[in-house]
Specification:
There is one protein chain. The protein is 36% helix and 17% strand. The chain is built from 10 helices and 11 strands. Helix 1 packs across helix 9.
């Protein structure tokens, strides 16, 4: 259905926002924790109940044996967070030192995400973490750039504070250039606003020269639970954060659909295609293996 990548200039609630969207999706959903600086869900939300034997790094190892090996192993490294398996998580790296091993694997993983969305009907939310730049471009090792190139939308997560806006401002132009040159176009870029501060959406949009595509309320109790630092609030499913995440996801899906329709009538200079239109058969085969994920015993 939709591939959405969340990024930030500094810790702004990317992982919590991505998890809230995944939990609130009304369709099959996957959260891929792809922050090269390391994942936090394993020690946080999962309370260390998921071992290092499951997760992103092992897919990089599998990719060395061939794209078909990555596709074959992909489902084995997903963790179900509901009994039906409609919501699943790919846990991230346990050590930032593992990041260089993923540099050559990002394109294959981006293709798997595309297959899950286009052929499997999944909403895919990618936690791409904090962006790193090198000579004005996205760092090839410290940023999963191919995942951003293939996403329908790339959202810069910011808090409604002057400090957060100041940190995010220097990323907007490099991201625009990256998505124009290698992705699906600069119009894929927008802001996910965390309403933790005094700045209003129009002020954020003016400051960053980007549209605020969605907003989430600041709800400390639910955020603490999702981060693994607090207990589940009473009536979790009725929390303002999850309700707003569901609404935000709907708005983002609609925005992605509008972009897709617009791209069916290409401009004079078409945006470069980030990924092949048809996935290789061995990659598409990952859909047949998604029923073999592990169940999180806490849920």
């Amino acid at each position: 259905m939709t591939v959405i990548a969340l990024v930030s200039a500094k810790s702004s609630g990317v992982t919590t926002s991505a998890l809230a969207m995944t939990l609130s999706s009304t369709r099959p959903s996957l959260l891929a924790e792809c922050d090269p600086a390391g994942g936090t869900l394993r020690a946080g939300f999962f309370q260390a109940q998921i071992t290092a034997g499951t997760g992103l790094y092992h897919l990089a190892v599998a990719e060395r044996a061939g794209e078909d090996a990555l596709a074959r192993d992909f489902a084995d490294h997903l963790v179900r967070i509901d009994v039906s398996g409609h919501r699943q998580i790919l846990p991230g790296l346990t050590d930032p030192a593992q990041a260089p091993a993923l540099e050559r694997s990002w394109p294959a993983l981006a293709q798997v995400m595309r297959v899950l969305s286009d052929e499997g009907g999944y909403d895919v939310v990618i936690d791409a973490g904090r962006l790193a730049l090198e000579s004005g471009r996205l760092h090839s090792t410290l940023t999963p750039a191919p995942l951003l190139h293939g996403a329908d939308l790339v959202l810069l997560v910011v808090r409604a504070t002057d400090q957060s806006l100041a940190l995010a401002r220097h990323l907007t132009e490099p991201l625009r250039n990256e998505l124009t040159d290698r992705g699906t176009g600069a119009d894929a870029l927008g802001v996910l606003l965390i309403e933790d501060g005094p700045r209003r959406p129009h002020e954020v949009s003016d400051a960053l020269r980007l549209p605020v595509m969605a907003a989430l309320p600041w709800e400390p109790d639910t955020a603490a639970y999702l981060a693994g630092t607090g207990r589940a609030p009473r009536k979790l499913n009725k929390s303002a954060l999850l309700g707003s995440a569901r609404t935000a996801l709907g708005h983002l899906q609609a925005a992605a659909s509008r972009r897709t329709l617009h791209q069916q009538y290409p401009p004079t200079k078409p945006a470069p295609a980030a990924l092949p239109a048809t996935a290789a058969p061995q990659v598409a085969g990952v859909l047949q293996r998604l029923g073999q994920g592990r169940v999180d015993p806490r849920v």
